[in-house]
Amino acid sequence: MNTNQDNAKSPQDEMRSKLLIKLIPTVRKKGFQSLRMDEIAKYMDVSKATMYKYFASKEEIIEGVVNSFVQYINELTVQSLDTVQSFDTKFRQLFEQAILLAAYISDTFLDELKVMYPDLYSSLKEAMKRREDKISSFYQEGKEKGIFNDVNERLIFLQEDVLVRAMLDMKFLMLHHMTLNQVLLDFYKLIKLQLFKAEKLEVTNDSDVIQKIDYMTQKITRDLL
After folding, report:
1. Which residues of 58-93 are buried (b: 16+ CB within 10 A; e: fewer)?
2. Is the N end or the C end of the chain the one with fewer CB atoms within 10 Å?
């Protein structure tokens, strides 16, 4: 996943980021415990000699992957909002980030990280907890201002985590004769209907949703499926 912080990086850090981005889909699918350094170089599409110019060890590579996730999570900002339109815009941003995080951070990766690198695991989980706290405050403000229904936001988090992982299963999609694009759009509509009060939905704007869904579909399909 790319982050907005890339623009401030040195050429060395920029190259490190590009190599890590190439590796993340493999780590998501297979984990990292069994990966050898020569295999990692292969997935990065560079020689071992080139890889070692940027990473001294496997631990440094995994640390880089975790830091990439943490940076992406930390990009989330939630300020106090006043209008239905501003809540609607922020909701779409949160939805996109939630889908990509659930898609790229797999249970396999987390399980191995917890065992092999507990400090990195704690760092990632703390970032995810801070994100949930920010979003909970966003939901609470929306409820207090009469824009959102009185829903349990923890159930929304659970839906985003569990259902998105199911959606990425090609067997699930084929069994139900659905495309990833279709299921993401339907899931977006489902969450929005649960969250926004009916009278507020009428003044929301979904004009850019198709474009966002197309972007996520292409990215996930290219990287993960």
Report:
1. eeebbbbbbbbbbbbbeebebeebeebeebbebbbe
2. C
Look up the domain containing 107 and give its range: 69-224
What are the structure tokens assigned to 219, written together?
């990215």
Residue 14 lies in a domain: no
Domain count of the chain?
1
pTM assigned to the model: 0.88
3-state secondary structure at position 147: coil
The answer to whether the CB of 149 falls within 8 A of the CB of 195 is: yes
The per-residue DSSP string of 5-40 comes to GGGG--HHHHHHHHHHHHHHHHHHHH-STT--HHHH
Confidence of residue 5 (pLDDT cuts 50, 70, 90): very low
Is residue 61 one of the residues assigned to a domain?
no
Any residues with CB less than 8 A from the CB of 189 and at least 6 apart, and which? none
- pLDDT, one tens digit per residue, over 87-119 is 999 999 999 999 999 999 999 999 999 999 999
